[in-house]
Structure formats: C-alpha cells, structure tokens
Design brief:
Elements lengths: L1 E5 L5 H4 L6 E3 L8 E4 L15 E4 L9 H6 L3 E3 L6 H16 L2 H9 L7 H8 L12 E5 L3 H12 L3 E5 L5 H6 L5 E2 L3 H7 L2 E4 L13 H6 L4 E5 L8 H10 L2 E6 L4 H4 L4 E3 L8 H21 L20 E8 L4 H11 L4 E9 L2 E8 L5 H8 L4 E6 L2
Parallel strand pairs: 1-2, 1-3, 3-4, 4-5, 6-7, 6-9, 7-8, 9-10, 10-11, 11-12
Antiparallel strand pairs: 13-15, 13-16, 14-15
Helix pairs in contact: 3-6
Length: 387
Amino acid sequence: MYTYCCLNNISTVGTRHFTDQYKEVHEQDPSDAILVRSANMKEMEFDPALKAIARAGAGVNNIPVDVCAEKGIVVFNTPGANANGVKELVIAGMLLASRDIVGGIEWLEKQEVTEDLQKRAEKQKKQFAGSEIAGKKLGIIGLGAIGVMVANSAVALGMEVHGYDPYLSLKAAWNLSSSIKYVQDVTDIYKECDFITIHVPLNDGTKEMINAEAFSLMKDGAVLLNFSRDLLVNETALVEALNSGKLHRYVTDFVTPRVAKAPNTIITPHLGASTKESEDNCAVMAVKQLRDYLENGNIKNSVNYPSCDMGVCTTAGRIGINHTNEPNMLAQLTGVLGAAGVNVANISNKSRGNYAYTLIDTDSALDETITDKIAAISGVRKVRIIK
C-alpha cells in the first residue's frame, strides 16, 4: 500500500487515477508522495518515508528543490499540461493591449442608463479605438510547450511571428509552424517586434533578462507580455519605459505593488492556468508520474533528478538508488549486489548535475540486507526495492 497527501485541492479527475493500492493521508502523517499546487513547502520538514513530490503545474519555486535532491526526494512538475490555458490568456492579452476594450467597458459601467446612452456611446467610442493584431510582428522568447502554442495561434491570426530559443527541442521544432521566423539573437526580437511575449523559466540566467538595455532596443510603442514569472522583468526599468511611453502596454499575470501602480498596465491575478481543463490535465499528469515512479522506479519530468525509464520490471527484482554524481559509484552499487550473489539483468545509470539515479533489474529477489548495505555507501541519498 502506498500513501499520498494533497497540500492543495487537486482535481479528482487526476486523483481518480490512483488505484486501490493507494491511500490518502493527512499532511502531518508520513507519506510516500505529496501532490501540491501553490502551497509553500520551503520550511517543511520532510519525513524519511517521503519519496516524491509532484507539482500540478510547471513552476516549482514553492518547493525546496535542492533540499529534496539532497534527501533523495524526486520532484516532478507537469510541463505542457496547462499550456493551452496559458496560451489562450496570452492571445487575450494581446487583444486587450491592442484594442482598449477594458477602457470602453469601464467607461460604460460608469454611465447613467438613460434613453440617450447608445448615442453617447457612439460619440465616445473613438476614445477607445485601437489597432488590429493581424499583420503585426510578434516576438516569442522561449519556444517550449506554451511558446509553440502561442506561435502557431498567432500565425493563424495573421501575425508575423519571430521566435527565439537557444535550447529549442526537436519536439518543439517539429510542432512549430513553418511560417515562424527562428532568430539566433534575442536582440532581434527587441528591435523588430511590435509585441513581445516571454515564455522561459526563472533561473539565474533569466532573472531580470528584460532590463533597461532590452527596453532601449525595443520599438517605440511596443507591447510586452509576461505570463511566465514576474522576476523575469526588471521593475525599475519597466516603470521607466511605461512612464516615458517607450512601452505602450505591459500585460502580465503577476501583480506586484510597484507594477500595480504603473500606468498602461493590464494585470490579471495569476489566471494563466486557472481553467478546469488545465487543472484536470496537470492533476492527471502528476498522478501518472508519481505512480510510475513509485511502482516502477521510472522518472519523467523531474526537475532535480535525471529522466530514467526501464518500463515495467519483468525480472525477479528491481532496485532504485538516488545518489550523488561521483566516480566509482556504479562499481560500488553493483559490487554490493555481486557480493550477495545477485546477478544484474539490466541497469540504467543517469546523471543530472550533482545528482544521479540508478535503476537495476536483478535475476533474484532483493531484501533489506542489500538495501542497508547500499544505503551505507557514501553519497547514497535514498535506496528502495521497487515492488
């Protein structure tokens, strides 16, 4: 029997994928796995029984990923599961920025309802006139699951799309419309495009990547959309660009005190993945990844351990070892098995940065005497027999 707990409300469309071999427990109880959305886990104490955490979403900045890696806890996310929901909001953001729809609605809501309301509206509508997005240049920074969807949808809407991603995957490249112009230098996006949308993860290399220099290169009257992370944009430079008119609009899904007071902003309260479909998709993907790891030892879409897939075990035993990435580790692990007279039928050893994962199928059953000996090896963070 496996146990799991949910730190947030997780769609039952997803949790229904747990079998009767799983039992939900309370947060304070030991569990094999945790499902989470937005709950802050930075200060949590992790029980030694915890093997995996699945974030029903893409961002994992609410999870202490490095701490988990050191404890042998695999952290999963669900890239692409909410991509369509975010894509649709990005498209809506472009339309709201190019046509003063919000201004028109707000004006109408303040009007007294009289017989001449329609006539007054006809006189005032020119204040809210805008431009069409067809024929405009859209620059997309980051061509992952969301970026590709935005790109293809924009092409269908008649936009000229320029894309930048130095780490473009083969899968993303195959899914991109042939009409999209792929650029090698991000500054080309700043210089050429009327609309710019960011779809990259937040890390040391991307933090405040949209800074004063980037704004200085942009076309006068450009529109910037940020539905990824607020810290990708330097707020001081952003406010200056908005105040000067360099930037026509800033459309974002992240409200901060400084940006909330800035002019020409359109801000939504983190609604990107707030659709029933996105929540269902993320929950299903998270549960399936947890099950595959707990039942088969396979890792897919982890943010702190390497991918590893040996399918379903067809031999007498399988053992999974989370460990540091260092020389001679594999020899030590197989040495313990050999000394116990256990033959290795199949093995996969993968590394990612400072950590690695080894999955081994054996021709004979395994017991705790072997796991105890492997756990005693320096660098081993967690070891378990996959049942």
